[in-house]
């Protein structure tokens, strides 16, 4: 049975933070609406959820990369957070503001909507580049932490480092990761760790828990746990998984094929 989280926003945030354990990673299968949140939350062993901005945006007919307005993003987060009792970490993209003060104000609104955690990116462009200036990027992380302090909800901050994914240098990635931890991040989400050696090196050089993305062709989940990763998510790949099954079923039904067994799933 899925563990029921404490009812207060602060308790849910504390629980989410506590689940980031190196070597016993928090596995979050990303969701994008109320029904996916409920179905995943009821799966055995699931203790927290995470949204994926790509999936949330595409489900609403707009592009990723803050294609949603901040009001739409917060409304989407509220629908998901209120649909379940376990903690939800929201992919909040770049914070929907060009400056740190705006990030703090928006994160305070996100917390009021029920979020127990969030992802925040350090790239200013849609293709994981260019990056925000390091001081400015750190100030944005600090602003998210200040929002938690102001609301009394210690929101779990998963600070995303886009250096490697954007074609940057390893040393810059490490420097940014440790700077974001010093600014108040709880976990560092490193994109671009494509093999075991890179994962191990990142864990050795970054002074806090590491979050990575998983999927076909990536380091296996059991290996990630053995290496000491603290969190694994799947981004838009869970949307792809769902859509692929739906498309295959539609093809089979259109061809007058057998009824897929999953057609009998009633929620």
Describe what you observe in this structure.
The protein is α/β, with parallel strands linked by helices and 267 residues long. The protein folds into two domains: 9-235, TIM Barrel (Alpha-Beta Barrel); 237-267, no CATH class. Helix content is 45%, strand content 11%. It is built from ten helices and eight strands. The chain has helices at residues 9-18, 34-41, 53-59, 70-83, 100-112, 134-151, 170-183, 196-205, 221-227, 237-254; strands spanning 26-28, 49-50, 88-91, 117-120, 156-161, 187-190, 210-213, 231-233. An eight-stranded parallel β-sheet has the order 1-8-7-6-5-4-3-2. α8 links the parallel β6 (187-190) and β7 (210-213). α5 runs parallel beside α6 (134-151). The radius of gyration is 18 Å and the shape is globular. The chain starts with 8 loop residues before the first helix and ends in a 13-residue tail after the last helix. 45% of the residues are buried. The model has no long low-confidence stretch (mean pLDDT 96).
